[in-house]
Amino acid sequence: MLSIMIIDDEDPIRRGLEKIISKLDEEYLVVGSFSNGFEASQELDRLTPDLVITDIKMPYMDGLKFIEELRRRLPSARCLILSGYNDFDYARTAMQYGVKDYLIKPVDKEELVVNLSHIHIELKAAKQEKEKEQLLSKKAQMSDLLLREQQLRRLLGGDRVTPVSAAVEEISIPVLLERPYALLAVRASNQGMKEQLLEWGRSMAAEGIESVAMEAQLVALLVPVPNEEETDRPAHRTALRLVNDLQFAAKGKFVIGISGGCQGSDAAAAAYREALALSCAGIYKREAFAVVTGREGPNAPAEPAFFTALLTGGFTRALERLDAEGIGEAVQRMFAEIERVRPPYEDLVQFVANLLYTAVQKVDGLLDELVKLTPPGVGVYQSVADFFNLTELKERILHLLELSLYRLASLRKEGGNRIIETVKQMIQQDYDKDLELSELSEKVFLNPSYLSTLFKQETGLTITQYVLQLRMMKAKELLKKRLDLKVYEVGEQVGYPDCIYFNKVFKKMVGITPREYRNL
Fold first, then answer.
1. Residue 488: how many other CB atoms lie within 10 Å
2. CA torsion, points 319, 324, 326, 328, in degrees to nearest 10?
3. How many helices and strands (H and E) does the chain possess?
4. Which of 191, 231, 387, 518 meets the CB 3.0–4.6 Å disulfide criterion with 261?
């Protein structure tokens, strides 16, 4: 698109140019038309034209002064001057400002077309070249950034064996680590949150903060501090700033573990492990954005007998009886004890794996049911290893065990109805949107294909058929009760922005068109 501004104090010429240009090509757009340079200069920043077609002799501000102003404020804009046969000296002065294109009055349409086409081609080529340069510059910057992150990730992970490229060795991470610093390990609740954290970290590079994506949903931040003894205040200030900047636009939750102060490359891996352990200790935090320091954990390992006692007694007996309600009560008691003792994260993950293993060993067929309730490609034990806090972990365990045992105890219909009713409610809330089976199945913790089968068994309809019936029911209701809505507006409200397609679907389902149905 070529945006054009026209300036000429003669109305017939100005309006004639507007008319000609508007009919030439849809790629040409007149964004402003003015009778003098002063009026046009007031709108330059708002309109930002690609091309200005201007007369030279005008009142208030002539073409030459306007061209000088244009060059100062929009240096990339082109200028096409209009001149009479007696204005050659003016035109020559304009050319000193870099103006290469001019038209002699009265304007010849063919000559105008040639000039516009030539200018449009040159501007597009210049824009493409600029974009290419910007892309190359961005790629170079990103390459340096990724190399820098690669070396930092290697240092924090304690890997001093794997060879790296010469380019990586040239990056100045070791120089950076010669100053005192603290490490922040930020554990995200999901991948989207991790990417948001990494983007924030990269935006802080100008302040000396280094960031790098680590394993799973983890981001490490290296924060310079005045000295090893004065670590808490700058590191904690950075953590609070991160919370403040992201909490209202966050795509999930996160918890920050802050290491003590250290210095040198040799201390990096130990500092990261300390910060990581603290961030994992945040699993006991209830707030969405938490900060954990060395004063709060991690706790000392619990005695093995503590975990053994949790898995015996009521839990084992309930498993043997396939008593889903009893198992639920036992799990609630287990997690209440875990929250009281607060064992280290690694011990907690191992306990959850042992809990599921015990259940699978006690109940034949339970593993098959657990697999059905686990996302594709994710192991049963893995599916409960990365939950963000204790409450989410407990709810996931309860969901897995209760639903699986209901099915195994011949209460499949009751359990299935509960899930399908939940799915129905979600569909009823968003029936006018494009609902993805994968999104619905994720919200009820089911495999997509299994949810589809269960829905058909319980309702006699596929999810697509159910959505279609619901949309038609809502459409009929709107057609009768909302006479202020046009037929196409009814279609939009029930999820069909294409009026023709809405008419086609409605007639197929109801037997008549929406308009005919309204007129019944």
1. 16
2. 110
3. 24, 10
4. 231
Q: How far apart are CA 317 and CA 55, in angstroms?
A: 95
Condensed to tens digits (0 to 9), the pLDDT of residues 49-77 reads: 999 998 888 888 878 888 888 888 998 88
Nearest to 405 by CA among 375, 364, 361: 364
Nearest Cα to Cα of residue 21 among 30, 32, 8:
30
Residues with Cβ within 8 Å of residue 182, at least 6 apart in sequence: 222, 223, 225, 231, 234, 235, 258, 259, 260, 261, 262, 271
Residue ranges in 157-264 assigned as alpha helix (H): 166-170, 173-176, 191-203, 232-246
Q: Is the dihedral of CA 424, 429, 431, 436 positive or negative?
A: negative
Give yes or no for a contact between 263 and 179, defined as CB atoms under 8 angstroms apart. yes
pLDDT grade, residue 430 (50/70/90)? confident
Distances (CA, A) of 333 to 56, 277, 468: 87, 26, 44
Place of tokens 């294109």: 101
Over residues 385-401, the pLDDT tens digits come to 667 889 888 988 888 88
Q: Under a CB-based contact definition with an 8 Å cutoff, are residues 47 and 3 in contact?
A: yes
pLDDT confidence bin for 266, thresholds 50/70/90: confident
Neighbouring CB atoms inside 10 A of 96's CB total: 9
**Distance separating alpha carbons of residues 506 and 495, to the nearest angstrom:** 12
pLDDT for position 140: 53
| Beta bridge partners of residue 182, listed in sequence order | 223
400 touches 373 (CB < 8 A): yes
Phi, psi of 159 (to 5 degrees): -90, 105
CB 447 within 8 A of CB 373: yes
Q: In b/e form, how buried is each residue of 396-412, taking b as 16+ CB within 10 angstroms?
A: bbbebbbbbbbbbeeee
ω into 298 cis (within 30 of 0): yes
CB atoms within 10 A of CB 236: 17
- Burial code of 261-270, b = ≥16 C-beta within 10 A, e = fewer? bbbeeebbbe
**Closest CA relative to residue 186, chosen from 300, 342, 292, 295:** 292
Distance (Å, whole) CA 444 – CA 423 = 8
Evaluate whether 390 touches 283 at the Cβ level (below 8 Å): yes
Short-list 471, 473, 381, CA closest to 427: 471
Find all residues with CB under 8 Å of 36, minimum gap 6, and list them: 7, 9, 58, 59, 60, 61
